[in-house]
Write a structure and sequence with these properties.
By secondary structure, this protein is an alpha+beta fold. Helices cover 17% and strands 38% of the residues. The longest helix has 18 residues. GO terms for molecular function: antioxidant activity; lipid transporter activity; phospholipid binding.
Length: 183
């Protein structure tokens, strides 16, 4: 069944490409970055890449709740994740992002080759990011609500297609999200 959904989203992406040209793909610049709009809770909705191997890490995920928080250091953000696997198991993870001066890109602490770029999104309460590391490049879609409107998802598919990322993965979100563990 997952293969059918992937194929349908691929066809949907082709249709979106025909209707919405790539000119709406806009990477955020440093002066456009409002860090406060990215703080708080986010749900992982979808991912895309030019290769299915770049999406393998998400194949066992049912849902993920993220929380982006400011640390005591103004140039560091902490991202926590509560990942629900398809088996029902909850897995906690955390990362630190380092804000680069005069850039809207985020560096991941401890991963010098990884780059995270932010893109403008058509819908409020959504985030589109591109992650690039030595072995992969992918674009990810997050929302503050569990089921964002279809045109918001279409905007994401369009941006992915404009980046020639035609392998799509919609996160199932069939189970309740895991809660964050207290540390």
């Amino acid at each position: 069944m997952e293969g059918l959904w992937t194929y349908l989203f691929y066809l949907y992406g082709l249709l979106v490409d025909a209707v919405f040209p790539c000119e709406n793909l806009v990477k955020l610049q440093a002066n456009e970055l409002n860090r406060d709009q990215y703080l708080g809770r986010w749900l992982f909705i979808a991912a895309a890449s030019s290769s299915s191997s770049s999406l393998e890490t998400f194949a066992y995920v049912d849902s993920t709740l993220f929380s982006m928080n400011q640390t005591e250091s103004p140039e560091r953000l902490q991202l926590g994740a509560a990942i629900r696997l398809k088996t029902g198991q909850c897995v906690p993870k955390s990362w630190n992002y380092l804000l680069e001066e005069k850039s809207a890109d985020l560096a991941t602490e401890g991963r010098p080759h990884m780059r995270t770029e932010l893109f403008s999104a058509k819908c409020p309460n959504t985030i589109i990011v591109q992650e690039t590391d030595q072995d992969y490049q992918r674009i990810l879609f997050y929302s503050r609500i569990l089921h964002p409107e279809e045109h918001c998802l279409a905007d994401f598919w369009n941006k992915a297609s404009c980046l020639e990322m035609n392998e799509f993965l919609l996160i199932p979100r069939t189970q309740d999200a895991c809660e964050f563990q207290q540390t």
